[in-house]
């Protein structure tokens, strides 16, 4: 059976802050409607390398996307390319680096910010290039794409948590409150997404440290959450790797693929 999937990547969200601050998602966990896993991000614990890791299943030292300044298309099959080539509808409301990895590089805001082109890997895109672009607006962009184009796969990728971490650090009220804000935005949409048959994953690329940065191997930089919601997930304990998220999504979408995946995560 083929499912529709929404993948939410909350940029820069540390595991413990997700665990402690996201009351709505924790409420779903208490009622056995969601499960939280802890996973360790690949290295370096940086954004662009880990977008590529999450979306292709290839770790940075193998993908060649080893820092944030490498501006080129991905050289690997991604959830987007596999889905598009197998007749699925793809969409993303995401930072412009995602457009650069899977659609066109370099990003040209006038051309690419609003993308509608069925020949591209991300057929319907609302991309942004401001780290402070409001998460509230980004979730609205994503919901507009979802309601208008009915995508099989939708990536939602807000940036404010990471932005607050770079301005105030991991141990700050601003960083934690930004995570609380994302939890509230999610609460506006999740019920309807699930009711319409989506399987939903909420994760992060990397965590944050108290030097207002990330990139290394500190637990607070590497430990990230994975919340899963939907009836195709097993909701039982298992060991999940960041490189296996791509394969899990491909499996949910019933795509032919050769990506590694966490079998225990699915029914
Ligand atoms: Zn960052």
SSE blueprint and pairings:
Elements lengths: L3 E6 L5 H7 L1 H8 L3 E7 L6 H10 L3 H4 L15 H7 L4 E6 H7 L6 H4 L1 E3 L7 E5 L6 H15 L3 E4 L3 H9 L4 H23 L2 E6 L15 H4 E7 L15 H8 L15
Parallel strand pairs: 1-6, 1-7, 3-5, 3-6
Antiparallel strand pairs: 2-8, 4-5, 7-8
The structure holds zinc ion (ZN).
Describe the structure in your own words:
This protein has 12 helices and 8 strands. It has helices at residues 15-21, 23-30, 47-56, 60-63, 79-85, 96-102, 109-112, 135-149, 160-168, 173-195, 219-222, 245-252, and strands spanning 4-9, 34-40, 90-95, 114-116, 124-128, 153-156, 198-203, 223-229. It has an 8-stranded mixed β-sheet, with helices on both faces. It has a single domain (4-265), classed as Alkaline Phosphatase, subunit A (3-Layer(aba) Sandwich). It is globular, with a radius of gyration of 17 Å. Helix 8 (135-149) packs parallel to helix 10 (173-195) and helix 9 runs antiparallel to helix 10 (173-195). Zinc ion is lined by residues 12, 47, 162, 166, 214. It holds the Pfam family Phosphodiest. InterPro entries: Alkaline_phosphatase_core_sf, Phosphodiest/P_Trfase. This is Alkaline phosphatase family protein.
